[in-house]
Amino acid sequence: MKILVVSQYFYPENFRINQLCLDLKERGHELTVFTGKPNYPDGEYFDRYSFKGNEDELWNDIKIIRAPLRARKKGSINLILNYLSFIYQASKKSKQIKGDFDLIYVFEVSPITVALPAIKLKKRLNIPIIMNVQDLWPENIIAVTGIDNPLIIGCISHIVNYIYKHCDLLLAASPSFVDKIKRRIKNKDKVLYWPQYSSVSKSEKKNDLLNHDKLNIVFTGNIGEAQGIDLAIEAAKILKNEPLHWHFIGNGRQKEKLERLTDSYSLNNVVTFHGFKPEKEIPDYLAQADAALLILKPDPVFEMTIPAKLQTYLACGVPIIGCVSGEGKRIILESNSGLVSENVSVDALVDVCEKFINLTEKERIEFKNNALKYGNENFNKETLLNQLEKYMEEIKNE
Questions:
Q1: How big, in percent rounded to 5, are the helix, strand and coil portions of the chain?
Q2: How far is it, in rounded angstroms, from Cα 360 to Cα 362?
């Protein structure tokens, strides 16, 4: 199949869509990616990229067409301008895209407006759209920004309805998303649950990446407002005399602020920020972790979300310490792959960490085995790719 992928984010930015494209190419499909200029998560253009200039390129035999967009920089206003610039610039550049594509695949993490240029392409090229819904709008906007003005939310809601209406298949990344999306459209049958899979697997490397004088709790991924890492820093302060060392691997808008908080609490001997690491290196860190931290601030939309890092933790067979509610909590309990706090708070996280410290080695090994088993049964890469290809074939032939 000839697939046109539309995503505001792509390589060298670190998103799951990168690996999905590689996996589909490996299966014999021809892919073209229509995306923006890379600037996530720091908000500045990556080296050798800028607003001006043609930076279309070839990556692993995948053609990348880049629309100019304003860098995210810092602050809410700049983020909104970043979103709007992609709609405008990608819509303009989409007129130059030609080809006999079989379908369009939209990878939707915020903003959902990434689908608007894709809809223009659908109408011009007369091909169907599959959208993979990773973030639920307008719920995600309310949760992250705190904006709840009825006029603004009503306008965003209208855009969401328009986008859902013009997509031929909507793949929801969480079971809890399905009903929410169905309420917005007439054709309920075009909404299906299709979760992310982990593109990594358990590592057997024994490199000394972590100091094993203490129990190592590892967090991987975006360090943003939603993740609630500040709760973990506060918990680390309370637990600073316990045999725990906290490791945060990744970048994000809150990283510098949290590093300053760590300094102010004099916690650098028990908290380490490792910065960004390539996805292929994450299993090596998790292989040496005693536990992986899954944490999300309490909010109805986050409760409906399955954080992508959870699939990675399961695939790497690492016990999980959860400070989450909703889908994340359900999966940890259902898989019996770790311990979950009673609620999302500093005290509850402290309590669950103290319980983890007192586990026997046998109990930790059982959590590891359960994580691997559940991940393979529910988020198996080959099974989910087979399913996606089936959906694509059906949509292409309708």
A1: 45, 15, 40
A2: 5
Give residue-wise pLDDT tens across range 163-195: 999 999 999 999 999 999 999 999 999 999 999
pLDDT of residue 198: 82
For the chain, where are the alpha helices, taking DSSP H only? 16-26, 76-93, 115-125, 139-145, 150-166, 175-182, 229-238, 255-264, 282-287, 300-303, 308-315, 326-335, 346-357, 361-378, 381-397
Are 161 and 184 in contact by the 8 Å Cβ rule? The answer is: yes
Residue 283 contacts residue 344 (beta carbons within 8 Å): no
Tokens of 30: 């021809």
The whole-angstrom separation of Cα 130 and Cα 126 is 13
Give backbone dihedrals phi and psi of 292, rounded to 5 degrees, phi first.
Answer: -110, 140
pLDDT tens track for 339-357: 999 899 999 999 999 999 9
Question: Parallel, antiparallel, or unpaired for β 62-67 and 191-193?
Answer: unpaired
How much is the mean pLDDT over the chain? Answer: 93
* Cα–Cα distance, 384 to 263 (Å, whole number): 43
| Nearest partner of 200 among 101, 314, 89, 103, judged by Cα | 314
Low-confidence stretches of the chain (pLDDT < 70) are 204-207
Q: Tokens representing 133?
A: 């819904």
